[in-house]
């Protein structure tokens, strides 16, 4: 269970809740250590009672980004996410694939107020990633349901089914989706064994670390942030950390006027 | 009946051979795209659709315009269209085929195309578009071919074909409406997010598609001596004129809403296309050329004397086709992606490979059209 | 005569390959646990997710079904015929079938080219 690096207490209530909600108890530890190493069989594992189909809509994973804590030069979360998920880097804009990145205020919040904002706010850089919208336009546009809304609010990609029509890219008002214009394996310098790569011709994007959630781990970006500026949790749980932050701070969503109901919130 | 396409003079076979050469070049280009991925095109993360989807959009309009001859001939019994109607139907067949090929060419994983049918998703407009396009392809092929076959044998067409022909009329409207809905329902793409997109698509389709039909009849007259009648062409030119006026009127309303409301996101795409945005002017000359050419062609069509001259008619029709091809292709598709959702401007330029594939698909469409029209003209002129 | 000799040239290596593959397949079915004594000849079927015969012809369907229900429906646990439970993951398969050539030998022999390893890390690439 060493993988869940969260807070100082070894096993506080919140973390237990998190692991329970992420849907893995005993198995979590096994998977976290096993990774892709085909070392031992997993049979006769005693599993808790979550192996039924989860109830859709009970959990809604969300994130609060405290942009005041986010350091200008730091790129830890981007690097970690892209490494863990084998996101290729071709060094050019045309073929670019990205799951999480930093951009200017006017780029991330083009419809929000910028007049007479303090120059510090306007010069800060802001993290952009998939918003895992409650009313996602991308899943509506997908002709094969290769991208779909999961039971826990995550907008997921089924790379096995994607036909590469790029309708989701046209539909996403946040530019969160990338297409594999070429074989992604050519652009991966240091491969990670924690997550598969993708194939040429499919669309990909941030998966809110659904791969790590099943192992009881927090998203890679959240875990890697040295300033603890990113907080992840269940938006449907009134007692969660994210809800507490939303309660005590004034926050923004990206382009709220489009009615997509993003699950990522920003403290400015 | 198809054997009639196998008899032709030297020019006919030269034309076929040159089309085959272009198709071969297209296949070579497509092979390289399949191998290296869509990176060989000019598309990228920001402008993620380009030439292919632009051609697709334009050609749906060409396909839909068949209704402009089917409707007066079958519903209003206007006999002057009797020779033109089959040309319209076969043009719809080849245009729809090209549409489907352009979608296929644009896909990252064309090997999985059947997923659209295996996992039908009624919430996705693409699903409906694939349905209506395939349906329209079949409707026009079956009705055109059956009526032509009956004519060859000198018998009236079978009664079952009538309902199919009537069905093709609303179906033609549906293909272009659904195609407009592909774009018009996407939040955050302000050039497309407009209720007037479907009506404008129909207007530009009936202007450009019908213009193309007039041009095809003129080419047939020139190459085979088979004349569909200047009366029919003149009536079609009237349709073109009105449709063209409506198209530019609707474009004007877009300008009014965007610029009078002064909402930046609504203005940005139009600014980028027609005036340039933040130092990016690459499409400005094309858009003004398209606008002036289109309006100039309409003026020619509005002058009664000029419309009767085949030369001026051909010039005006060509002008309108090119104008709408630029506006609906380059302008509409690229303008939708600029600026990007993060307010960035990325210019798009098609690559040679992309142009090769595009020409290849056009050549396939022209080949199919040539073969179908060869059969039609042979039957009609009782060879 | 020449043709017949050619056939022999092909047939003998083919038979050899067949025998080797057969042997490897046999050994591939065994469950290996690192650090444990070598597995007995008789395979303990309680550790299998299904009968060998069934898996031999239907493993692709099982993989597809596992993928569908775990990725799309969130049901990540598979209960086998004898009540033992497994995580629906390619890792579960590979954890047991730890012979790195397990997939390759048979697919090569049957001349099928599944695309799993275009994205998933193949056993050949694991440390």
Number of helices of chain C: 5
The counted number of beta strands of chain B is 0
The helix/strand class of chain B is mainly alpha
Instruction: Return residue spans of chain B where pLDDT drops below 50 for at least 5 consecutive residues.
Output: none
The helix fraction of chain C, in percent, is 40-55%
| Total of domains of chain C | 2
Q: What percent of residues of chain B adopt helix (DSSP H or I)?
A: over 70%
The ordered string of helix (H) and strand (E) elements of chain B is HHHHHHHHHHHHHH
Description:
- The complex is a heterotrimer of chains A (268), B (383) and C (127).
- Chain A has 268 residues and is α+β, with helices and mostly antiparallel strands.
- Chain A has a single domain (56-267), classed as 2-Layer Sandwich (Alpha-Beta Plaits).
- Chain A has helices spanning 13-22, 26-34, 76-84, 105-108, 119-123, 137-141, 167-171, 210-213, 220-224, 241-248, and strands spanning 61-66, 100-103, 126-129, 147-149, 155-157, 178-179, 203-204, 230-234, 251-252, 264-267.
- The longest helix of chain A is centred in the first third of the chain and has 10 residues, at 13-22.
- Chain A starts with 12 loop residues before the first helix and ends with a strand.
- The relative contact order of chain A is 0.23.
- By secondary structure, chain B is mostly helical.
- Chain B has one domain (2-380): Formate dehydrogenase/DMSO reductase fold (Up-down Bundle), CATH 1.20.1630.
- Chain B has helices at 10-36, 51-64, 67-75, 85-106, 115-118, 125-153, 161-184, 197-224, 230-261, 264-274, 284-302, 304-308, 310-337, 352-380.
- Chain B is globular, with a radius of gyration of 21 Å.
- The termini of chain B are close together.
- The relative contact order of chain B is 0.17.
- The model of chain B has no long low-confidence stretch (mean pLDDT 93).
- Chain C has 127 residues and is mainly alpha-helical.
- Chain C folds into two domains: 1-30 and 100-127; 40-96, no CATH class.
- Helix content of chain C is 54%, strand content 5%.
- Chain C has helices spanning 2-29, 52-72, 90-96, 102-110, 116-119, and strands spanning 77-79, 85-87.
- In chain C, a hairpin with a 5-residue loop joins strand 1 (77-79) and strand 2 (85-87).
- In chain C, helix 1 (2-29) packs antiparallel against helix 4.
- Chain C starts with a helix and ends in an 8-residue tail after the last helix.
- Classes of the chains: A alpha+beta (268), B mainly alpha (383), C mainly alpha (127).
- At the A-B interface, helix 4, helix 6, helix 7 and strand 6 of A face helix 5 and helix 6 of B.
């Amino acid at each position: 269970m060493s993988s869940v690096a969260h807070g100082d207490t070894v096993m506080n209530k919140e973390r237990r809740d998190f692991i329970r909600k992420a849907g893995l108890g005993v198995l979590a530890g096994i998977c976290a250590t096993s990774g892709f190493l085909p070392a031992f069989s997993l049979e006769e594992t005693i599993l808790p009672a979550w192996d039924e189909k989860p109830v859709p809509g009970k959990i809604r994973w969300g994130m609060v980004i405290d942009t005041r804590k986010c350091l200008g030069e730091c790129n830890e979360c981007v690097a970690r996410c892209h490494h863990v998920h084998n996101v290729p880097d071709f060094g050019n804009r045309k073929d670019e694939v990205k799951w999480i990145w930093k951009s200017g205020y006017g780029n991330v919040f083009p419809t929000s107020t910028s007049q007479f904002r303090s120059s510090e706010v306007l010069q800060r850089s802001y993290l952009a990633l998939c918003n895992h919208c409650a009313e996602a336009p991308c899943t509506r546009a997908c002709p094969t349901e290769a991208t779909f809304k999961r039971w826990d609010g995550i907008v997921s990609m089924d790379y096995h089914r994607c036909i590469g029509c790029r309708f989701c890219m046209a539909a996403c008002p946040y530019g969160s989706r990338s297409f594999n214009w070429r074989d992604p394996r050519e652009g991966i310098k240091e491969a990670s064994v924690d997550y598969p790569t993708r194939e040429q011709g499919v669309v990909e994007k941030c998966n809110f670390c659904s791969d790590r959630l099943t192992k009881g781990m927090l998203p890679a970006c959240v875990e890697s942030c040295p300033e603890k500026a990113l907080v992840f949790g269940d938006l449907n749980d009134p007692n969660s950390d994210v809800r507490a932050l939303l309660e005590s701070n004034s926050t923004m969503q990206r382009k709220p006027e489009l009615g997509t109901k993003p699950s990522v919130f920003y403290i400015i | 009946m198809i054997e009639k396409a196998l008899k032709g003079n030297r020019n006919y076979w030269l034309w076929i051979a040159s089309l085959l050469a272009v198709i071969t070049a297209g296949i070579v280009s497509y092979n390289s795209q399949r191998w290296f991925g869509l990176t060989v095109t000019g598309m990228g993360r920001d402008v993620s659709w380009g030439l292919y989807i632009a051609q697709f959009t334009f050609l749906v309009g060409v396909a839909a315009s068949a209704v402009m001859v089917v409707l007066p001939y079958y519903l209003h019994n206007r006999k002057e269209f009797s020779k033109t109607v089959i040309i319209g139907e076969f043009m719809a067949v080849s245009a729809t085929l090209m549409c489907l090929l352009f979608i296929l060419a644009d896909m990252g994983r064309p090997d999985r195309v059947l997923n659209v049918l295996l996992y039908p998703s009624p919430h996705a407009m693409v699903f409906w578009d694939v349905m209506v396009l395939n349906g329209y392809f079949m409707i026009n092929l079956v009705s055109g071919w059956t009526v032509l076959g009956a004519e060859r044998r000198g018998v009236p067409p079978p009664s079952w074909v009538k309902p199919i022909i009537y069905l093709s009329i609303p179906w033609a409207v549906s293909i272009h409406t659904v195609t407009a809905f592909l774009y018009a329902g996407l939040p955050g793409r302000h050039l497309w997010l407009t209720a007037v997109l479907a009506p404008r698509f129909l207007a530009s389709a009936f202007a450009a598609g019908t213009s193309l039909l007039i041009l095809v009849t003129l080419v047939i007259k020139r190459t085979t001596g088979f004349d569909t009648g200047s009366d029919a062409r003149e009536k079609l030119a009237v349709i073109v004129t009105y449709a063209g006026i409506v198209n530019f009127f609707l474009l004007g309303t877009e300008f009014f809403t965007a610029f009078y409301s002064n909402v930046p996101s609504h203005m940005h795409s139009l600014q980028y296309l027609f005036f340039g945005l933040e130092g990016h002017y690459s499409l400005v000359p094309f858009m003004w050329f398209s606008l002036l050419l289109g309006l100039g062609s309409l003026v020619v069509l509005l002058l009664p004397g000029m419309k009767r001259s085949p030369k001026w008619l051909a010039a005006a029709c060509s002008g309108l086709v090119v104008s709408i091809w630029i506006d609906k292709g380059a302008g509409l598709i690229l303008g939708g992606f600029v600026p990007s959702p993060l307010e960035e401007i990325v210019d798009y330029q098609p690559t040679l490979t992309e142009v090769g594939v595009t020409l290849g698909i056009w050549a396939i469409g022209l080949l199919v059209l040539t073969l179908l029209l060869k059969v039609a003209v042979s039957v009609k002129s009782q060879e | 005569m020449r043709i017949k000799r050619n056939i022999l040239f092909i047939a003998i290596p083919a038979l050899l390959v067949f025998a080797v593959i057969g042997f490897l397949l046999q050994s591939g079915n065994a469950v290996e646990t690192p650090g444990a004594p070598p597995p007995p000849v008789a395979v303990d079927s309680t550790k299998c997710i299904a009968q060998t015969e069934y898996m031999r012809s239907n493993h692709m369907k099982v993989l597809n079904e596992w993928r569908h229900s775990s990725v799309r429906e969130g049901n990540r646990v598979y209960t086998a015929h004898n009540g033992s439970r497994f995580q629906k993951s390619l890792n579960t398969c590979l954890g047991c079938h730890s012979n790195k050539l397990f997939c390759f030998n048979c697919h090569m022999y049957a001349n099928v080219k599944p695309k799993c390893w275009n994205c998933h890390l193949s056993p050949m690439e694991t440390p």
